[in-house]
Design brief:
Elements lengths: L1 H11 L10 H20 E3 L7 H7 L9 H23 L7 H28 L7 E3 L1 H21 L5 H25 L8 H18 L9 H4 L3 H23 L6 H27 L8 H6 L3 H5 L10 H28 L9 H21 L3 H4 L1 H8 L10 H30 L28 E2 L14 E2 L1
Parallel strand pairs: 1-2
Antiparallel strand pairs: 3-4
Length: about 475
């Protein structure tokens, strides 16, 4: 028994081999070929993107192409797509030597993830029982991007510590788990979550944190020299923040009902985000003896309001209610970076590179709570009879559901997303822990040179004991 235990220990602690010349191309080629085959078998255009649209218009007495869902949804899709590939990618470029990995691997896993998401979400939500086909349109593309967002959130927790092969495996399982929990929350529980506070952010946050816990590196301090940011890397990350901040109203309103629901979701998110910025700046300044601002807080916590209002974005939370949610989210998220992140790493051994607990997991839970309370407090006097039915989709099997019951199911949906994130992340983390994926050694984490051709010579990173000093010497720099 002792020999077996020692053998396992030696196997998992053997020297890292980061040569992925065979494994990465094989995974990319095999999985992309699999996507081609599966798309050929299952995926078809829906009636609004099919060439038979002309006949559909005549049959349904549609007089203009402007009634095609494309013209309603594409502007929102465009904004969400930019958030996924530009916003998330650049937000993670804050590390001084991991910009290629942040943007490039974000590009890779999003490109694979959206294909797999169209299949997984199609099998659960839109599989035609008569033909056995999945019919996709522009709303399907938005939902696939939402699914990918959960995996990109999880990537933030393990940024710089995993190989691209591990990221693809993490995305494969992440999309699968997402599709199942989304089906349970939105279809079986019939919870409302237009902006994904529960389905996307809570799940993605705890999924990434659980994986990071399983992949805990006790000697990660050997890469401490690479963990910080420099002036230009923080500036690039701020570009990601601004793209996300500007387009978040589109994210929260993209799949809401046309008309008042979508309009209300934009207004609520717009106001909530603005409120979050002021309280983030306030707490960031208060946290420093000199009153200076920390760029980490400004890059991340200013977005927490958009996360927290995702569930209740289309509800009649009122403009001042949206401001209140943003007010408290800026405080809680910033305090998370100051106090909770060090606690998670020191006590719970969760090494959260990007602080996704403070930007996604915790605000996601707040969003679930806000959504449950707002749903339970809804009334005909505020929404109107038909407005209440439209907002909470009290039709069909759910036509007799009360608002109090809806509030309970909203809370249950939040619990489902946490369970799927934690349990699923623990299982996937155990798979990723196998020493076959080409992950970097502890001393080589957060460094692009492990997986990328970095053509310029090694850059010298200069840190000033006091940024106001005009004179510096080479002692202040490290290569």
């Amino acid at each position: 028994m002792g020999n077996c235990s020692q053998g396992c220990k030696d196997y998992f602690s053997r020297q890292k081999n980061t040569n992925i010349r065979l494994t990465l191309p094989v995974v990319c080629f095999v999985w992309q070929i699999a996507m081609i085959i599966l798309f050929g078998v299952f995926i078809r255009y829906d009636k609004e993107s099919n060439a038979h649209w002309v006949e559909t218009k005549a049959h349904d007495n549609i007089t203009s192409d402007i009634e095609n869902d494309f013209y309603f949804r594409y502007p929102s899709f465009q904004d969400v797509h930019v958030m996924i590939f530009v916003g998330f990618g650049f937000l993670m470029t804050f590390l001084k030597r991991y910009s290629f990995g942040a943007v490039g691997f974000n590009f890779l896993i999003a490109s694979f993830g959206l294909q797999w998401a169209l299949l997984m979400q199609g099998w659960f939500h839109s599989l035609d029982p008569q033909t056995g086909k999945i019919f996709i349109g522009v709303e399907s593309l938005i939902n696939a991007d939402f699914c990918v967002a959960g995996c990109l959130i999880a990537y933030g927790a393990v940024l710089g510590k995993v190989s691209p092969v591990q990221l693809l495996v993490m995305t494969l399982f992440g999309v699968t788990l997402f599709a199942v929990e989304e089906y349970i929350i939105l279809n079986l529980l019939h919870a409302r979550d237009a902006g994904g506070s529960m389905v996307i952010h809570t799940f993605g946050g705890y999924y990434g944190l659980a994986i990071s816990r399983v992949l805990y590196r006790p000697n990660l301090h050997q890469s401490k020299r690479m963990q910080g940011s420099v002036y230009h890397s923080d500036t690039f990350a701020m570009i990601g923040t601004l793209f996300l901040w500007m387009f978040w109203p589109s994210f929260n309103s993209a799949i809401t009902d046309h008309g008042d629901g979508q309009h209300r979701a934009v207004i609520n998110t717009y106001l909530c985000l603005a409120s979050t910025v002021l309280t983030t700046v306030a707490i960031s300044s208060l946290s420093q003896k000199t009153g200076k601002l920390d760029m980490v807080h400004i890059q991340n916590s200013t977005l927490a309001g958009g996360v927290a209002l995702g569930t209740a974005a289309e509800f009649m939370i009122s403009p001042y209610g949206a401001l209140i949610v943003g007010f408290f989210c800026g405080i809680i998220s910033t305090m998370g970076y100051i106090f909770i992140s060090p606690f998670l790493e020191k006590t719970l051994k969760i090494q959260d590179t990007c602080g996704i607990h403070n930007l996604h997991a915790m605000p996601g839970v707040i969003g679930g709570i806000v959504g449950a309370i707002t749903a339970a407090a809804a009334s005909e006097s505020v929404y109107g009879k038909q407005g209440l039915i439209n907002t909470f989709d009290f039709t069909g099997d759910f036509k007799d559901r009360t608002v109090l019951t809806q509030g309970g199911y909203q809370a249950a949906g939040m619990c489902v997303s946490i369970v799927f994130g934690v349990v699923g992340g623990a299982i996937v983390g155990s798979i990723l822990k196998l020493p076959i994926w080409g992950d970097p050694a502890d001393e080589n984490c957060f460094d692009d040179e492990v997986y990328w051709e970095v053509r310029e010579p090694s850059v010298m990173f200069c840190s000033y004991p006091n940024r106001s000093e005009s004179n510096f010497s080479v002692e202040h720099c490290e290569s």
